[in-house]
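Late entry, evening session. Most of the bench is empty. Finally got around to the prediction I had been postponing all week. Sequence below, unchanged from the version circulated by S.P.
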Amino acid sequence: MKTPKKHLNIFLLSMINISAICSIRNWPVAAEYGFSSLFLIVLAALIFFIPVALVSAELATGWPEEGGIFVWVKEAFGHKMGFLSIWYLWMTNIPWYPTLLSFIATTIAFVIAPSWVNHPYYIFGTTLILFWSATALNLCGMKISGWLSTIAVLVGTILPGIVMIALASHYWMSGAPLQITVSWSAFFPKVHSVQDLVFLTGILFSFAGIEMSSVHANDVENPQRSYPRAIFLSASMILLISALGALSIAMVIPQEKIHFTSGALDSLSYFFEAYHISFLLPLFAACIAIGSFGQMSTWIAGPSKGLLAAAKQEDLPAVLLKTNAKGMPVGLLVAQGLVVSFLALVFVFMPSINSSFWLLTALTAQYYLLLYILMFAAAIYLRYKKNDVPRSYRVPGGKTGLTLISALGMLSSTIFFLVGFIPPSQIETGSVFFYEMFLVLGMIIGSLIPSLLMFFKKSSMKTAANANVL
């Protein structure tokens, strides 16, 4: 029997990681901290990003089969916990889509109608149109490969990001006035209350997802060798680009005027005007929009297909298990679209686009942090209980090293999961009660849904069985 050809090498795997994580839309959140964003990015890397990269590299080379976190958690704690982990991954993407789509909508408006940038009904309507269009494309059996991820990240992040960073560097060296203070004291953030550090949750979340490439295990050339190298290559590039990108925005846009959805374009616009090349702005806006849409399309069906593959017949109702002739999970994609459409209403009811963007980002981060707590716990369990499983890469330091790294990741994830429920001091979020209830209910309902679906599925199967007996 002929062995299927592997399509992903280290370069393509690295590009998938960068496409999934590194995005211009994340830079304005870090830019809110000015020059101290460098300190916070380094801190996020040490206590979160590096532990995730190290642990996921070990787990991916020990269990390289398709499924990623679902497989790792299932191997450690059984099918139900594994299913909960893949459910969290699916739920993580749902509030993430409106944030990405609002960024695309703002990017489009920035060029064709700048007055629409902060118009809630425009953002809401465009979000719905773009998301359902991407869903329809995926339902048609659109084959998304590593090359699409590569094109998306090159066009939408690397090209405009390099241009922005290059112009910012020249601007800085020219001695032009800056909106930030570059000094040793400014390197450390001024923290008066825990509210001042809430955006650090967003910085942590901007580094989430490096384990996502494990879902492509069946298409990777020599996964035991490729995964660690791709993870470390992509992690280095992501940290460097993110740090320089955040500074590029912070140096020319005052902190109180940084918009989460348009901050990057505001910065590009400033630099283009300063260097008399404003005619390039529409082209770069189009690149960013296309790249972001490609990034979303890359992942829009992935978590749903992963959830479908992980689910046993008793896990989900029959309507959610339906697939079309192309093998696409119709039930889950439609359900996903309905929930995304509902969540997009926050753009209408929150005080500003900034507050809406942050609220959805916070909810996304909460789900992801719970997912990582499960992953770190599984890594510790598997190192002690299944240490004999071959791994071409192991976290340095033996069992003690793996335990300490995983414990650090679990501790940071837990702390910032709790901090995420606090409204940030930097922006107006409206009613504190609404803000916290949105997150609390979102977490409770999202966590209970898998158990409820299993309960009703089993109840209906039991009722049907009894009816057959009668």
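Two things to note before I forget:
The domain at 10-465 is CATH 1.20.1740.10 (Amino acid/polyamine transporter I).
The two ends are 49 Å apart (CA to CA).
Will write this up properly tomorrow.
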